[in-house]
Amino acid sequence: MADEAIPAMHDFFAEAENFLGTSLLRRIKILKFFTEKQEADLWQKKQGDLKNYLDNHIYLKDQFSLTGLIPPDYGFAFVEESGNVNTEKFIQKTRDWLIAQNSLFEKKFAFDSTCLHEGLYFFEGNMFEKTIFCEGWRFSLPSPFEAVQLKPAKGELLHFHAPQLRSEEHT
Fold first, then answer.
1. In sequence order, which residues have a C-beta less than 8 Å from that of residue 51 and are 6 or more positions away?
2. Which residues contact 48 (CB under 8 A, 6 or more apart)?
3. What's the Rg (C-alpha) of the chain?
4. Chain centroid offset of residue 33 CA
5. Whether the predicted pLDDT of 59 surpasses 50
6. Contact in structure between 90 and 24 (CB atoms under 8 Å)
7. Which of 64, 110, 139, 167 has its CA 20 to 30 A from that of 13?
8. Which DSSP symbol is given to 107?
9. Residue 119, beta-bridge partner list
10. CA–CA dist 37, 75 (Å, integer)
11. Long-range contacts formed by 83-92: CB under 8 A, 24+ apart
12. pLDDT at site 170
């Protein structure tokens, strides 16, 4: 999974950074301490499958030289491919772009202000062929979409397949 997800993440954020004109992804290495022998053993087992992402060497206690930290008894290694995304900046820049494109409505959603007619969706005088409705962490019941079994979730991804939406058409 990492072999697919990490390169896709790098590609996506390189394109997003270029498009939005800002830095979003910070690549870093993570120092992993092994506090038990089983952790070091598991690391060695995973190195084959994750060789592009995990340091292939476990450093011993006497090779540790960070001042002020106690050396780990069972060694340490590095996660080579890691980082973090400035999600707040990503959301704000994306939001700003959507507003500039007149594609973001900042209104309280009133389901009775909608109409679906001949495959088109109407909301407050605006017509849409396709709509993605996400309640996010503010999900609450009852929902206007009672026919859809919605469950509140935290930290999950929304996956959808839309072959007619190709990124090169929207950048």
1. none
2. none
3. 23
4. 26
5. yes
6. yes
7. 139
8. S
9. none
10. 9
11. 83/25, 83/26, 83/27, 83/28, 84/25, 84/26, 84/28, 85/13, 85/24, 85/25, 85/26, 86/23, 86/24, 86/25, 86/26, 89/22, 89/24, 90/16, 90/20, 90/24
12. 42
Q: Which of 133, 110, 112, 130 is nearest to 121 (CA)?
A: 130
| 131 in Cβ contact with 105 (< 8 Å) | no
Structure tokens at 103: 């594609």
pLDDT, position 146: 61
| Residue 171 confidence (pLDDT) | 36
pLDDT value, residue 125: 78
2 or 160, which is more confident: 2
> What whole-number distance in Å separates Cα of residue 162 and Cα of residue 72?
48
Answer whether 91's CB lies under 8 Å from 97's CB: no
